[in-house]
Specification:
2 domains, alpha/beta, binds pantoate, Rossmann fold
Protein backbone atom coordinates (compact mmCIF):
# COMPACT_ATOMS: atom_id res chain seq x y z
CA UNK A 1 0.00 0.00 0.00
CA UNK A 2 1.27 3.42 -0.98
CA UNK A 3 0.90 6.29 1.50
CA UNK A 4 0.53 9.77 0.03
CA UNK A 5 0.20 13.05 1.90
CA UNK A 6 0.67 15.68 -0.84
CA UNK A 7 -2.33 16.69 -2.95
CA UNK A 8 -0.28 17.08 -6.15
CA UNK A 9 1.20 13.59 -5.77
CA UNK A 10 -2.27 12.12 -5.15
CA UNK A 11 -3.67 13.84 -8.24
CA UNK A 12 -0.73 12.70 -10.39
CA UNK A 13 -1.08 9.12 -9.13
CA UNK A 14 -4.82 9.15 -9.90
CA UNK A 15 -4.14 10.55 -13.39
CA UNK A 16 -1.60 7.76 -14.03
CA UNK A 17 -4.10 5.07 -12.97
CA UNK A 18 -6.77 6.60 -15.22
CA UNK A 19 -4.33 6.75 -18.17
CA UNK A 20 -3.73 3.02 -17.72
CA UNK A 21 -7.50 2.51 -18.01
CA UNK A 22 -7.94 1.62 -14.35
CA UNK A 23 -11.07 2.45 -12.40
CA UNK A 24 -10.66 4.19 -9.05
CA UNK A 25 -12.82 3.90 -5.94
CA UNK A 26 -12.41 6.22 -2.98
CA UNK A 27 -13.39 5.51 0.62
CA UNK A 28 -13.32 8.78 2.58
CA UNK A 29 -12.74 8.31 6.34
CA UNK A 30 -11.68 10.26 9.40
CA UNK A 31 -9.54 7.35 10.53
CA UNK A 32 -9.60 5.31 13.73
CA UNK A 33 -10.76 2.57 11.40
CA UNK A 34 -13.13 -0.18 12.47
CA UNK A 35 -14.76 -3.13 10.69
CA UNK A 36 -17.40 -0.80 9.22
CA UNK A 37 -14.69 1.15 7.36
CA UNK A 38 -12.96 -2.06 6.29
CA UNK A 39 -16.24 -3.34 4.83
CA UNK A 40 -16.38 -0.14 2.74
CA UNK A 41 -12.85 -0.82 1.47
CA UNK A 42 -13.79 -4.39 0.54
CA UNK A 43 -16.84 -3.20 -1.36
CA UNK A 44 -14.69 -0.57 -3.10
CA UNK A 45 -12.27 -3.35 -4.07
CA UNK A 46 -15.10 -5.38 -5.63
CA UNK A 47 -16.10 -2.38 -7.73
CA UNK A 48 -12.81 -0.84 -8.92
CA UNK A 49 -9.21 -1.64 -9.87
CA UNK A 50 -7.60 0.86 -7.49
CA UNK A 51 -8.89 1.60 -3.97
CA UNK A 52 -7.91 4.88 -2.35
CA UNK A 53 -8.84 5.33 1.31
CA UNK A 54 -8.53 8.83 2.70
CA UNK A 55 -7.74 9.54 6.32
CA UNK A 56 -8.36 13.08 7.49
CA UNK A 57 -10.10 14.37 10.63
CA UNK A 58 -11.83 17.26 8.92
CA UNK A 59 -11.94 20.30 11.23
CA UNK A 60 -14.59 22.15 9.20
CA UNK A 61 -17.31 19.61 9.93
CA UNK A 62 -16.99 19.93 13.71
CA UNK A 63 -18.83 22.69 15.59
CA UNK A 64 -16.92 24.85 18.10
CA UNK A 65 -18.16 22.79 21.09
CA UNK A 66 -17.76 19.40 19.39
CA UNK A 67 -15.12 16.71 19.77
CA UNK A 68 -12.56 17.68 17.08
CA UNK A 69 -9.64 17.79 19.53
CA UNK A 70 -10.49 14.56 21.30
CA UNK A 71 -11.59 12.65 18.16
CA UNK A 72 -9.61 9.36 18.29
CA UNK A 73 -6.52 9.22 16.10
CA UNK A 74 -4.07 6.35 15.56
CA UNK A 75 -2.45 6.59 12.14
CA UNK A 76 -0.07 3.63 12.60
CA UNK A 77 -2.97 1.33 13.47
CA UNK A 78 -5.04 2.75 10.56
CA UNK A 79 -2.20 2.06 8.12
CA UNK A 80 -2.11 -1.62 9.13
CA UNK A 81 -5.89 -2.01 9.02
CA UNK A 82 -6.31 -0.18 5.70
CA UNK A 83 -3.63 -2.35 4.12
CA UNK A 84 -5.12 -5.57 5.54
CA UNK A 85 -8.48 -4.75 3.93
CA UNK A 86 -6.91 -4.28 0.49
CA UNK A 87 -6.42 -0.51 0.23
CA UNK A 88 -3.99 0.33 -2.59
CA UNK A 89 -3.35 3.96 -1.67
CA UNK A 90 -3.87 5.71 1.65
CA UNK A 91 -4.17 9.48 1.31
CA UNK A 92 -3.26 11.15 4.62
CA UNK A 93 -3.04 14.92 4.18
CA UNK A 94 -2.20 17.42 6.90
CA UNK A 95 -4.61 20.15 7.94
CA UNK A 96 -2.39 22.76 6.20
CA UNK A 97 -2.39 20.73 3.00
CA UNK A 98 -6.22 20.64 2.93
CA UNK A 99 -6.91 24.09 4.37
CA UNK A 100 -3.99 26.48 3.82
CA UNK A 101 -4.25 29.77 5.72
CA UNK A 102 -5.73 31.58 2.69
CA UNK A 103 -8.53 28.97 2.24
CA UNK A 104 -11.96 30.60 1.53
CA UNK A 105 -14.35 28.23 -0.31
CA UNK A 106 -17.22 26.22 1.22
CA UNK A 107 -20.12 24.28 -0.27
CA UNK A 108 -23.60 24.83 1.13
CA UNK A 109 -26.36 22.38 0.25
CA UNK A 110 -29.76 23.82 1.09
CA UNK A 111 -32.90 22.36 2.75
CA UNK A 112 -31.77 18.77 3.37
CA UNK A 113 -28.91 19.99 5.59
CA UNK A 114 -31.06 22.04 7.95
CA UNK A 115 -33.05 19.10 9.34
CA UNK A 116 -32.09 16.15 11.60
CA UNK A 117 -28.32 16.31 12.17
CA UNK A 118 -28.23 19.76 10.59
CA UNK A 119 -30.56 21.16 13.27
CA UNK A 120 -28.16 20.11 16.00
CA UNK A 121 -24.94 20.56 14.00
CA UNK A 122 -25.64 23.63 11.83
CA UNK A 123 -22.21 23.82 10.16
CA UNK A 124 -21.58 20.08 9.92
CA UNK A 125 -22.72 19.39 6.35
CA UNK A 126 -21.07 22.56 4.99
CA UNK A 127 -17.77 21.14 6.25
CA UNK A 128 -18.48 17.55 5.23
CA UNK A 129 -19.65 18.47 1.69
CA UNK A 130 -16.66 20.76 1.23
CA UNK A 131 -14.09 18.18 2.25
CA UNK A 132 -15.77 15.43 0.22
CA UNK A 133 -15.77 17.66 -2.89
CA UNK A 134 -12.09 18.41 -2.29
CA UNK A 135 -11.33 14.70 -1.84
CA UNK A 136 -13.17 13.95 -5.09
CA UNK A 137 -11.02 16.51 -6.94
CA UNK A 138 -7.87 15.15 -5.31
CA UNK A 139 -8.45 11.41 -5.76
CA UNK A 140 -10.36 11.62 -9.08
CA UNK A 141 -12.50 8.51 -8.42
CA UNK A 142 -15.06 6.80 -10.64
CA UNK A 143 -16.79 5.44 -7.53
CA UNK A 144 -17.07 6.63 -3.92
CA UNK A 145 -18.24 4.43 -1.07
CA UNK A 146 -20.04 5.68 2.05
CA UNK A 147 -21.82 3.96 4.94
CA UNK A 148 -25.57 4.00 5.56
CA UNK A 149 -24.90 4.75 9.24
CA UNK A 150 -24.48 8.39 8.23
CA UNK A 151 -27.78 8.29 6.35
CA UNK A 152 -28.20 12.04 5.98
CA UNK A 153 -24.60 12.45 4.87
CA UNK A 154 -25.19 9.86 2.13
CA UNK A 155 -28.25 11.80 0.91
CA UNK A 156 -26.32 15.08 1.04
CA UNK A 157 -23.40 13.59 -0.92
CA UNK A 158 -25.73 12.22 -3.59
CA UNK A 159 -27.23 15.72 -3.92
CA UNK A 160 -23.75 17.27 -4.12
CA UNK A 161 -22.73 14.85 -6.86
CA UNK A 162 -25.94 15.50 -8.80
CA UNK A 163 -25.95 19.30 -8.40
CA UNK A 164 -22.26 19.86 -9.14
CA UNK A 165 -22.12 17.21 -11.90
CA UNK A 166 -19.38 15.09 -10.39
CA UNK A 167 -18.98 12.10 -12.71
CA UNK A 168 -18.83 9.69 -9.77
CA UNK A 169 -21.03 6.74 -8.82
CA UNK A 170 -21.97 6.76 -5.14
CA UNK A 171 -22.31 3.40 -3.38
CA UNK A 172 -23.91 3.35 0.08
CA UNK A 173 -23.34 0.19 2.08
CA UNK A 174 -25.36 -1.24 5.00
CA UNK A 175 -24.47 -0.29 8.57
CA UNK A 176 -22.06 -2.70 10.25
CA UNK A 177 -23.10 -3.59 13.77
CA UNK A 178 -21.54 -5.14 16.85
CA UNK A 179 -23.09 -8.47 17.92
CA UNK A 180 -25.47 -6.68 20.29
CA UNK A 181 -26.68 -4.33 17.55
CA UNK A 182 -24.69 -1.17 18.32
CA UNK A 183 -23.72 0.49 15.04
CA UNK A 184 -19.95 0.55 14.59
CA UNK A 185 -18.48 4.02 15.07
CA UNK A 186 -15.10 5.46 15.99
CA UNK A 187 -16.93 7.38 18.75
CA UNK A 188 -17.96 4.12 20.52
CA UNK A 189 -14.51 4.14 22.12
CA UNK A 190 -15.59 7.11 24.28
CA UNK A 191 -18.18 4.94 26.10
CA UNK A 192 -17.58 3.65 29.64
CA UNK A 193 -18.51 0.00 30.19
CA UNK A 194 -21.93 0.93 31.67
CA UNK A 195 -22.56 3.36 28.82
CA UNK A 196 -21.50 0.74 26.29
CA UNK A 197 -24.20 -1.62 27.67
CA UNK A 198 -26.84 1.13 27.60
CA UNK A 199 -25.86 2.25 24.08
CA UNK A 200 -27.60 -0.81 22.61
CA UNK A 201 -30.85 1.08 23.25
CA UNK A 202 -30.44 3.03 20.00
CA UNK A 203 -30.79 -0.09 17.84
CA UNK A 204 -33.36 -1.59 20.22
CA UNK A 205 -35.55 1.49 19.79
CA UNK A 206 -35.29 1.25 15.99
CA UNK A 207 -36.26 -2.41 16.17
CA UNK A 208 -39.17 -1.51 18.47
CA UNK A 209 -40.41 1.02 15.88
CA UNK A 210 -40.15 -1.61 13.15
CA UNK A 211 -42.13 -4.14 15.23
CA UNK A 212 -44.85 -1.57 15.98
CA UNK A 213 -45.07 -0.64 12.28
CA UNK A 214 -45.21 -4.33 11.31
CA UNK A 215 -48.12 -4.66 13.77
CA UNK A 216 -49.97 -1.80 12.07
CA UNK A 217 -48.96 1.37 13.94
CA UNK A 218 -48.95 4.32 11.51
CA UNK A 219 -48.81 7.36 13.78
CA UNK A 220 -45.30 8.82 13.86
CA UNK A 221 -45.90 10.68 17.13
CA UNK A 222 -46.94 7.36 18.78
CA UNK A 223 -43.85 5.62 17.37
CA UNK A 224 -41.54 8.42 18.50
CA UNK A 225 -43.11 8.44 21.95
CA UNK A 226 -42.59 4.65 22.38
CA UNK A 227 -39.00 4.93 21.18
CA UNK A 228 -38.35 7.86 23.55
CA UNK A 229 -39.81 5.91 26.49
CA UNK A 230 -37.49 2.99 25.82
CA UNK A 231 -34.40 5.18 25.32
CA UNK A 232 -34.94 7.32 28.41
CA UNK A 233 -35.39 4.18 30.55
CA UNK A 234 -31.57 4.07 30.39
CA UNK A 235 -30.07 6.44 32.94
CA UNK A 236 -27.19 7.60 30.71
CA UNK A 237 -29.36 8.31 27.63
CA UNK A 238 -30.94 11.54 26.41
CA UNK A 239 -32.53 12.06 23.01
CA UNK A 240 -31.37 14.84 20.62
CA UNK A 241 -33.94 13.84 18.02
CA UNK A 242 -35.93 10.95 16.61
CA UNK A 243 -37.13 11.44 13.05
CA UNK A 244 -39.46 9.43 10.85
CA UNK A 245 -39.04 10.94 7.41
CA UNK A 246 -39.01 10.36 3.69
CA UNK A 247 -35.81 8.50 2.81
CA UNK A 248 -35.31 10.74 -0.22
CA UNK A 249 -36.37 14.26 0.87
CA UNK A 250 -35.97 13.90 4.67
CA UNK A 251 -39.38 15.57 5.08
CA UNK A 252 -40.93 14.26 8.28
CA UNK A 253 -44.08 12.16 8.07
CA UNK A 254 -46.93 12.53 10.55
CA UNK A 255 -48.63 9.30 9.45
CA UNK A 256 -47.09 6.48 7.46
CA UNK A 257 -48.71 5.34 4.23
CA UNK A 258 -48.24 2.12 2.30
CA UNK A 259 -45.29 2.37 -0.06
CA UNK A 260 -43.51 5.18 1.87
CA UNK A 261 -39.73 4.78 1.74
CA UNK A 262 -39.03 5.71 5.30
CA UNK A 263 -35.87 6.63 7.18
CA UNK A 264 -36.17 6.26 10.94
CA UNK A 265 -33.15 8.00 12.40
CA UNK A 266 -32.05 9.24 15.76
CA UNK A 267 -29.27 10.92 17.68
CA UNK A 268 -28.91 10.02 21.33
CA UNK A 269 -26.41 11.17 23.92
CA UNK A 270 -25.09 8.34 26.03
CA UNK A 271 -23.38 10.24 28.83
CA UNK A 272 -21.37 12.86 26.91
CA UNK A 273 -21.07 10.73 23.74
CA UNK A 274 -23.41 11.57 20.89
CA UNK A 275 -24.35 8.51 18.81
CA UNK A 276 -26.50 8.24 15.68
CA UNK A 277 -28.24 5.30 14.03
CA UNK A 278 -31.05 4.62 11.56
CA UNK A 279 -33.01 2.03 9.64
CA UNK A 280 -34.66 2.19 6.23
CA UNK A 281 -38.12 0.70 5.75
CA UNK A 282 -40.67 0.50 2.99
CA UNK A 283 -44.10 0.63 4.59
O1 LIG B 1 -18.17 9.99 7.32
C1 LIG B 1 -17.08 10.49 7.64
O2 LIG B 1 -16.24 9.85 8.27
C2 LIG B 1 -16.79 11.93 7.23
O3 LIG B 1 -17.92 12.72 7.35
C3 LIG B 1 -16.16 12.05 5.84
C4 LIG B 1 -17.12 11.57 4.76
C5 LIG B 1 -14.89 11.24 5.78
C6 LIG B 1 -15.81 13.50 5.55
O4 LIG B 1 -14.89 14.00 6.47
Amino acid sequence: MKIISAITEMQRTADEARLLGKSIAVVPTMGYLHDGHLALVRIAKQNADVVIATLFVNPTQFGPTEDFNKYPRDVERDIKLAESAGTDILFVPSREEMYPTDYLTYIVIEKITSVLEGKFRPTHFRGAATVVAKLFNITKPHIAVFGQKDAQQAIVIRQLVKDLNFDIKIIVTPTMREQDGLAMSSRNMYLSSTERKESTVLYQSLQLAKRLIDNGERSCSKLISEMTKLITSKSSASVDYISIASASTLQEFSNLETGDNTLISLAVRIGSTRLIDNILLTI
